[in-house]
Amino acid sequence: MPLTELVAFAIGALRGHRLRTFLSVAGVAVGIAAVVALTALGEGARQYVVQEFSSLGTNLLIVIPGKVETTGMMPFGGTTNDLTLDDYRAVATRIPLVVEAAPLATGTEVIRAEGRSRSVAVFGTTAELARVRRLVVGSGRFLPSGDSDRGGSEVVLGLKVAQELFGAVSPLGKVVRIGEWRFRVVGVLAPRGRSLGFDFDDIVFIPVRTSMRMFNRSSLFRILVEVGSEGNLTPAKKAVIELLAERHRTEDVTVITQDAVVSTFNSVFNVLTLALVAIASVSLTVAGVGIMNVMLVAVAERRREIGLLKALGATTRQVLAVFIAEASVLSSLGGALGLAVGWLSIRAFVQVYPTFPAAPPTWAVVASLVVSLGVGVVFGAVPARRAAKLDPVQALVGR
Amino acid sequence: MEPSTIDCRLSTLGPLGFPGIDLIPGVVAMIELKNLWRTYQVGDSEVHALHGVDLDIARGDYLAVIGPSGSGKSTLLNILGCLDRPTAGSYAFDGRDVGQLSDLERTQLRQNQIGFVFQFFHLLARLTAQGNVELPMLFAGVSRAERRTRAAEALASVGLSDRAHHRPDQLSGGQRQRVAIARAVVMGPGLVLADEPTGNLDRASAFEVMDLLDAMNRRGQTVVLVTHDPEVAGRARNTVRMDDGEIVERS
Ligand SMILES: Nc1ncnc2c1ncn2[C@@H]1O[C@H](COP(=O)(O)OP(=O)(O)OP(=O)(O)O)[C@@H](O)[C@H]1O
Ligand SMILES: [Mg+2]
């Protein structure tokens, strides 16, 4: 019996039992769609966390004014020296291991433009921040490079701020007021969204000197230091602490490295990956059991047909081939449908949460297809084989 | 391949529309049953559906099997059709011991040598009359084009050319049984077995079915039928009466 005839006969049988075929295909499809959608969410969550932490910059030192006690708590009160722009320049230029460094000073002010106003977080910094924090400028450019002590009246807007103040109009070259100060918009950031609880779309960047004057601060909030590689973190940290201790004549800064953070989150990633595998295996098992039931019922219902086919001269192998062909067609249809449904639901999800990187891992897609096909064929073929091995009369009377 | 199989393929088509068979009736014993037993285990007790049946059926014979309900008629016919196996005793078909045949060889016997007509038709509901008649040829590996023509001829021979594309639920009981007969003979089997083929039919349909069986026998096919109806049994050349798993009378 040639394969085409076999498949034609199988398809005929499937068309002849529309409800059962529909239920079987739906069973397979639901299983696969569940695996695809669930693992996509799980993988998305994992990716999201990974992305968040790598967006911090990986080989990063963060210099904080004030000494953190070994307990990990910030001291209340106590006098510490300011972290000044001179300190920043010293760190940036005098330590060879430092690839790039950027100062940060912060405050909150009201921003006005085009007759609209809102309160906004203002970050004073320099051009280097764009590289250290991997900021992407959507239009225009970031703050101009040059002397950090220069002041200047350029501002770079977060996307949300730009949209709320200017709507669809390009804000480039327009004048905004922050507090009593006038600024000219030189750039708008590309959408970044929330990152670790901080909305990058809802801030503005101005030159660091200007912000320190605006907020009447003598100390920086942070110095961010990028070193070339992970191996440089520890020596660079030591060098920064020594340099600043020398400048302040006391060790009064705290330097934290990302690797403390990263090692914590490595274990988080592992848990997430495990959870993903667990989700996938549970949904695969559910899918497999569903397919198994459908196939078992389908074959049980058709013992009589198996008996008849044998009585008419079909060999055991031919009967088996018919059922395997049917199971394969069913599983493939279900698999295709399941992938489609899974993919559509992911698309719908991403539509609602665009920043969430939901995509099913390839291994989950492959495993779900293999399992559904395998389970479908095995549980279609095994009972069919048992029925086909009976004497036809036993299968015909159906017991 | 056995000679009789080749005969089927090479012979010209007779007026019935399906391949003719070996046309020397009544000479060779086609079927020899010796001390045939069929025992069912029901719980702790044994039911002897057949006990010690001896029966020879000549090639070309037309035999009716009658007897009360539960006397073992269907059991006997199922064993003849290789749908069931005896618990003990021997069954020779064309001189070959069926008990010694492999599963595949018995399948081939069913495929090429035996046509079975069931009381309850056993047509596949999803297939048309044509599709049902094509089934045995599908498994025998007959090409699609040849299946078409042979099925059409077989349907014509049972007077159902105009119903070829109807499904069983669009046919009357008598028409369904005629489709089943066309299916049983489409491979040109030497032996046609019919278990109460008229049991579910009205008088007129029953006569149509019997006319077809008569015609098959006239073409040389060996026909064995089980019936409760004395009038149907009267059409056959020979009759055996069964009671309680034994043959009690031959005529
Ligand atoms: N699968 C089975 N298991 C147990 N007993 C069976 C089985 N099949 C048949 N029998 C028994 O074997 C005996 C013969 O059954 P069989 O079907 O051959 O009778 P029959 O002559 O065809 O009857 P009817 O005229 O009612 O069709 C009966 O007593 C029946 O109960
Ligand atoms: Mg019976």
How would you explain this protein's 3D organization?
The complex is a heterodimer of chains A (399) and B (251). Chain A has 399 residues and is of the alpha+beta class. Chain A has twelve helices and twelve strands. Chain A has helices at 3-16, 18-55, 85-94, 129-132, 159-166, 208-214, 233-248, 258-301, 303-311, 316-352, 362-389, 392-397; strands spanning 60-65, 98-113, 116-125, 137-140, 154-157, 175-178, 181-189, 194-195, 198-199, 203-207, 222-227, 253-257. The model of chain A has no long low-confidence stretch (mean pLDDT 83). Chain B has one domain (3-25, 61-85, 101-250): P-loop containing nucleotide triphosphate hydrolases (Rossmann fold, 3-Layer(aba) Sandwich). Chain B is α/β, with parallel strands linked by helices and 251 residues long. In chain B, helix 4 packs across helix 5 (144-157), helix 4 packs parallel to helix 6 (173-185) and helix 5 (144-157) crosses helix 6. Chain B has eight helices and ten strands. Chain B has helices at residues 3-10, 73-80, 103-112, 129-140, 144-157, 173-185, 203-218, 230-235, and strands spanning 29-42, 45-58, 62-66, 88-93, 96-97, 114-117, 191-195, 222-226, 238-243, 246-250. In chain B, the strands form two sheets. Chain B has a six-stranded mixed beta sheet with strand order 6-7-8-3-9-10, with helices on both faces. Classes of the chains: A alpha+beta (399), B alpha/beta (251). Chains A and B meet through helix 1, helix 9 and helix 12 of A and helix 3 and helix 4 of B.
